[in-house]
Design brief:
By secondary structure, the chain is mostly helical. 80% of the residues lie in helices and 0% in strands. The radius of gyration is 31 Å and the shape is rod-shaped. It starts with a helix and ends with a helix. 0% of the residues are buried.
Amino acid sequence: MPSSKTSKTQNRIRHAVQDVADSSKDFVDEHPIPMALVAFGLGLGIGMALAYGMTEGAGFRRQEGLAHRLGRRMLDAMAHGLPESLSQFRS
């Protein structure tokens, strides 16, 4: 059996933890919107950090999208049809 000193220490710790939990709950109840924004920001930050870490660690390289490739093809096609005087303004 635990000694009375150990038992008193456990009770003090239990009460201290309960007091912190109660005051945290009261604070969240009194300030719901700021706490929701904090939770959203933390989740977003952690998610972005994980995504960055996973993509950088795997050597992920962003590929050109379909729209970008089509746009480049259209510009190339138009560049061949431009008169010489206008082709100088082509990038």
